[in-house]
Amino acid sequence: MKGFLYLVIWALAFAFSCSSAPANATPDPAEGEALYRKYCALCHGADGRKGFNGAPDLTLSTLKREERIRLIGDGKGQMAPYKELLTPAQIEQIADFTLTLR
Predict the structure, then answer these.
(1) In the Cβ-directed half-sphere of 40, how many Cα atoms lie within 13 Å?
(2) Would 23 be classed as within a structural domain?
(3) 88 near 23, Cβ under 8 Å?
(4) What is the tally of structural domains in the chain?
């Protein structure tokens, strides 16, 4: 059942995405929060503490920026991989925003 829920959440995020940023766009920290709210807040919560569907509390995470970028891109466990949905710049923006949640 969790696998089905994961698939539905990922499909909805994909269906409603409108990624228009070029692949070589410079990361914009202000955009990171909007992307986080769109793709991540459902499970992680607006403040990073929600923990829905096994999502870790991001306020306690000790992952470095590069590790976060890799995790967002590749996914892990119930978390969908976003490298096919988001540009590298958008993934970096989300990773940068998650660092502000500590």
Answers:
(1) 31
(2) no
(3) yes
(4) 1
Q: What is the CATH number of the domain that holds 56?
A: 1.10.760.10
Domain that holds residue 90: 2-18+28-99
For 101, half-sphere exposure in the C-beta direction (CA atoms, 13 angstrom radius) is 29
- Whether the model clears a pTM of 0.85, i.e. scores above it, the answer is no
The DSSP call for residue 101 is: T
List pLDDT tens digits, range 2-43.
554 454 455 545 554 444 445 555 556 679 999 999 999 999
Kindly report the backbone phi and psi dihedral angles of residue 77, in degrees, each rounded to the nearest multiple of 5, phi listed first: 60, -120
Is residue 27 within 8 A of residue 92, CB to CB? The reply is: yes
Polymer length in residues for the chain: 102
Residue 89 lies in a domain: yes
SS3 of 79, please?
Answer: strand
